[in-house]
Amino acid sequence: xxxxxxxxxxxxxxxxxxxxxxxxxxxxxxxxxxxxxxxxxxxxxxxxxxxxxxxxxxxxxxxxxxxxxxxxxxxxxxxxxxxxxxxxxxxxxxxxxxxxxxxxxxxxxxxxxxxxx
Length: 117
Known about the structure:
Distance between the termini: 19 Å
Mean pLDDT: 77
Strand content: 15-25%
Number of strands: 5
Largest sheet: 3 strands, antiparallel
Strand order of the largest sheet: 4-1-5
Radius of gyration: 14 Å
Helix content: 10-25%
Structural class: alpha+beta
Order of helices and strands: EEEEHHHE
């Protein structure tokens, strides 16, 4: 579970395709979003913390968003450096790179405030 207030992440367990509205940088979690990268269908491994079983969770094609800090690393193909900076394992975003539509450069994105009721 990921919550914006205390920034806690617990591995996701889901057996259905996932998609979500933009809430911030998909790379570091910052509230800022300055760029959107179109991605095709991609799956991510997730581990159920209760039983330790790893499952592949599919995500529908959608945009992934970057803040001004992460964007230069993404555009420069320096994702291992970004992983080091954010204390993630090297190769963490390899599947996203493979799913990037036609190596799209993406497009500018202006933050939009999303209100949840």
